[in-house]
UniProtKB/TrEMBL annotation:
Residues 210-412 form the Sigma-54 factor interaction domain. Pfam families: AAA_lid_14, HTH_8, PrpR_N, Sigma54_activ_2. This is Transcriptional regulator with PAS, ATPase and Fis domain. Gene3D superfamilies: 1.10.8.60, 3.40.50.2300, Homeodomain-like, P-loop containing nucleotide triphosphate hydrolases, PrpR receptor domain-like. The lineage of its organism: Bacteria, Bacillati, Bacillota, Bacilli, Bacillales. Keywords: ATP-binding, Nucleotide-binding, Transcription, Transcription regulation. PROSITE patterns: SIGMA54_INTERACT_4. It comes from Caldalkalibacillus horti. InterPro entries: AAA_lid_NorR (IPR058031), Homeodomain-like_sf (IPR009057), HTH_Fis (IPR002197), P-loop_NTPase (IPR027417), Sig_transdc_resp-reg_PrpR_N (IPR010524), Sigma_54_int (IPR002078). SUPFAM superfamilies: Homeodomain-like (SSF46689), P-loop containing nucleoside triphosphate hydrolases (SSF52540), PrpR receptor domain-like (SSF159800).
Amino acid sequence: MKIKTLVIAPYSGLKELVTQLAKEQHHLEVIVEHADLKEAIPIIRKYEQDDIQFIVSRGGTAKLIREYTSIPVIEIQVSGYDILRALMLVKDYRQQVELIGFPNICQGVVSVAHLLDMDIPYTTIHSQDEVDDAVQLAKNHGAQVLLGDTVTVRTADKHGLQGMMITSGKESVLDAFEQVIRINDILVPSQNDRIISIHTGDTTVSFGQMVAHSKIMQKTIEQATTYATAPKPIVICGEKGTGKRFLASCIHNVQELAGGLKEVIIPQGARLLEGEVDSLHSIQHSRTMVIKGLDNLTIKDQQVIFSVVKERLSYPSQQVIFIFTRHPWELIEQGTLHSDLLSLTNHILRVPSLEERKEDIEEYIKYFIGLYNSKFGKQVVGMRGEVMSYMLGRGWEENISELKKWMKELVLSAEGYYIEEAQLTQLDESSQPQRVQSPIDLSKTLNEIEKDIIQYVLQEEGMNQTKVAKRLGINRTTLWRKLNENK
């Protein structure tokens, strides 16, 4: 499977170069967008839902992107070749040249300029907001040509000066692609041992955007509205795909107070590291902290999280929301969740499944048709009666998430104004899980049966040895040894 990579090019020339080089990358699926600095943020938001594995950009844009996403960001470095090319262009300029750039650009240019016996005045900037003043200052000093990144060139033009960009060459882009492949090779085998990720949540949604014709969902929203202004943490629980994170964002927005929303995502097998505790303390300035998957940590690590939460709640207007796929009482009884949670709060919201709110399904269908018409340029106005009957009567194991995936495929494959029954048959068949036939022959010896079981589970788990070891109740070292016996 190719590595899905989003490249955000701060200038059009880089977009063209990346597009050409991407055709030669057999291990990468490359999507290229043109955006500089803050222009990149809405693009990240757009692609975060599309399983992007890496983001590639350069300079200040790469630095800024890291602040807004948990997806790994690879920077296209400004190479010595790039700097040398730019300096050779300005070497014999009679006009006064000055450099304005982020630290990585300035350091490289000054080093190479020294080797060429060139003396170029420079100003180091750390954010986009500093560029205008830096350009004005350079102009006051008599500079006529400004060397730097995209934002420097654009601002120089605004001040009536000549801007010259230090562009990235083929070597720098290929280096970034190779770095994506190397890091992916390190990350993929240990997905179950991922560390906690922290990223910015959605602060633009409200309860008014929720589909809630059913009485059970209306009651949930009423409870959520009441809990939102109370000085206690809130627990949101419900099956996979029921919209728990969306509800958390709506709760955050009830009180129109300053401060953002941070989501702390704890995957299965995660371990709480010392640096992550520091990260949790560092987001105290965000008004709301959403913690998803606390039960994936050990009881000991959960106690550390609780101490952070208690400290946070000592400040005014601070909110903490916990998200679970099962009711906290069940998790406590099972022994995967510490009972201290119930000493912090009794504000528990259970988000109903689609099975419990079938009267909302038709409204969701209409919403998703509108969404994907806009996204894919389609003109679907509805679905045939027999298709609607099927959708209303079908079980949705992954709830809204699964319904959303189905609607995306149905709208995409629609050839006319209506979704037809024939599309259902094709989609239903493709959604059936392809199970591997069990090859286990109990007439074999015990060692042979054991090997067959391991191979069978490997196929079921897509050859992921971490998952196989967990399912078989052995560690990865033991699994590796068994796989290599008698080879």
